[in-house]
Amino acid sequence: MDSIPFARPFVGKEEEEAVLRVLRSGWLTTGKEALAFEEEFSRFLGKGPQGGGPAGSPADGGAEPGIAPPCLAVNSATSGLHLALEACGVRAGDLVFLPSYTFTSSAEVVRYLGAQPVFVDVGPESFHLDCEALESTLERLSRGLPPYPSRQGGEGFGPRGRAAAVMPVHYGGLPCDMAAILDTARRYGLRVVEDAAHSFPSYYSPSETAGGENAFPAGSKAAGYAGTLGDAGVFSFYATKTLSTGEGGMVACGDPELARRISLMRSHGIDRSIWNRYTDSRASWYYQVLEPGFKYNLPDLLAGIGRVQLGRAWELLEMRREIAGAYDRAFGGDPHFSIPPSSPANAWHLYPLRLKAETLSIGRDEFAAKLQEGGVGVSVHFIPLHTMPYYREVYGLEPEDLPHSMESFRREISLPIWPGMDRTMTERIIGLVQSTAARYTA
Length: 442
Known about the structure:
- The chain is α/β, with parallel strands linked by helices.
- It has a domain at 13-311: Aspartate Aminotransferase, domain 2, CATH 3.40.640.
- It is built from 14 helices and twelve strands.
- The radius of gyration is 22 Å and the shape is globular.
- Residues 48-64 and 209-220 have low confidence and may be disordered.
């Protein structure tokens, strides 16, 4: 019996034809395909109720029309986050607040700028940055105290500097409580860069605040696609993501000035785009270097794939929703598991199942190994960054300094949830997870 991989890109004839079209055009790097992808992505994010999406989606009439934000294609979400923070004025010595429960790119881009990441715990039973913990950290800094409380008395420890920005991470496809984060950012003068790598096309709406443990917090007022609510939002098109070009990303900016800065800096700080320099007959060789920029542009080969994937965004989401629904029905009443927080807004990049450790005779690592031995690929999202050697040593952090992050990490297993998984695969995964729990019941 073949193994079921943890993730597999969903590509077909249309994506193949897009690649061939670009290859035959004679132009492979950033050009008109990337420009078209940016425009189409921007229109998608600003699109009102025009029909064609699944129930509850903006395209189904579930949201009011918005403003199409400027969008800039980049070669990875990592580079997009770097550009966004730089454009927002984050400089050496500044403090950027983000959850420890995220991938390393979220924090490493802060260090690229010489700034300091300040890790904030996630909420209890949550994978998202805890707004109360963020508020407490900022309040400590406002009183001249370091960000982390002391474990043995005293004023505490951690980096000092100007509180510059907050980076909420829309984990797994479910948006953070952006209303609370935006309110805190406004009161403390922080820029907001959304790490939306997991969340396309996830729509954050006040209508999702009706109550219940899986709803958004009551009182939320911000509305729009995750990634469009702060100063800038960054999407990932990595091979496992909900929209995939293999590698790549997109930055959405509400402020045209930020967009202009990012556009300049993503291509060496040169004042003319690659497409313009090579297709303009007027002194095509001439350009000016305005800033020492970066090499972060997205080539047309990948943009062509992205345009096809964008056109089937709702189709791909519906496939993921069907798998998540099957998992919810299977595991929702099982005493060994806690199913992930959900909402009609969830983009279902991940299905993070939590084990109830007290009901099992084996831990998470062994449970995951049993699933892999049974031919099911699984993963863990994430190992908290404050436990990684670099951040632990530089900032003097211990695992239990962020206890909710550690609790989530010790219990979480990510199950396969990719478009193209058929019902037989889904049922096999469910059967193996349930039989493993039954075999190792405490």
